Amino acid sequence: MRGLNIPQIDLNKELSKCESMEDLVGKNGLMQRLFGNIIQQFLEAEMEEHLGREKYERNNVGDKNYRNGHSSKNIKTSFGEAAIDVPRDRNANFEPKIVKKYETVCNELDKKVIGLYARGMSVDDIKSEIDELYGVDISPSMISKITDKVMETAIAWQNRSLDPVYPIVYMDALYFKVKEEHKIVNKAAYVCMALDMKGYKDILGIWVGEQEGAKFWLTVCNDLKNRGVKDIIIACMDGLKGLPGAIKVVFPEVNIQNCIVHQIRNSLKYVASKDSKAFMKDLKSVYQASTEILALASLDNLEANWGLNIP
């Protein structure tokens, strides 16, 4: 075991030696050395708090728990590998918070691995990228363990219990390309965003399918019901054929409202392109009105200006 000796770094002196960003944040750079030093001081402060006294200070009240040396440990961080000495106590009940027991990868490195994984990089590509950026050699199995944490969290989030009633639920599908069996294919992500009884927005779930269809939306609605949703007051959606009927099978009392964006697009089909800007100005005054009275007045104005001009 290394003897504990926290090096005191003269920051101004060390900074004067840095001639490039590589000297500052690269492999064996100043940030890497500073990081290990700071973590070590955190650990010592945590031990002092745990024992209730400073190093070498004795407590005569009867508490016989003392420091009991250190354990050597290398942690992998976004600034490279850092060697630290984790303090131990005689009663073996010290639980460090800054670097937990058995933890060897800093959370920031976890985030970097997860970010690269989310961009579709393979395990080998992630391994090479981390090694090149930070000089940290992490095994494929460690990368898999890090990314598995995301999947566990995602599954727990997707299966969480929901509120019994939602005033408004917005339903739509987003399309994206993914690599599947060495081919690029289109996928549809079915998204439900709700406004809860307190007025807060909440994503109820994301479901991935091949193409958007009413049959899959029926599966989504059944999942919402199984997770605790008993009623939806208003379901806002696009004009997908069969979608209102699929929702009403599960939530028969729901009120269907077409999405404003889709209503606008449908309205613009009947307006000449040269008039679209002026038409949109009058149309906005209808759906952006603060009261029903103002909305009806704006609708009359829209009819007066455009009723005879639209075939």
Strand content is 15-25%
Task: Give the averaged pLDDT, no decimals.
Answer: 79
Cα-based radius of gyration, to the nearest Å? 30 Å
SSE sequence, one letter per element: HHHEEHHHEEEHEHEHHH
Helical content band = 40-55%
| Beta-strand segment tally | 7
Q: Helical stretch count?
A: 11
Characterize the main sheet. Answer: 5 strands, mixed
Please give a quick description of this structure.
The chain is α/β, with parallel strands linked by helices.
Protein model, in words:
By secondary structure, the protein is of the alpha/beta class. It contains 11 helices and 7 strands. It has helices at 11-17, 21-25, 30-51, 107-118, 123-134, 140-158, 214-226, 243-250, 260-268, 276-287, 292-306; strands spanning 67-77, 80-89, 165-180, 183-195, 201-209, 231-237, 255-258. A 5-stranded mixed β-sheet has the order 5-4-3-6-7. The chain has a two-stranded antiparallel sheet with strand order 1-2. A hairpin with a 2-residue loop joins strand 1 and strand 2. It is elongated and about 85 Å long.
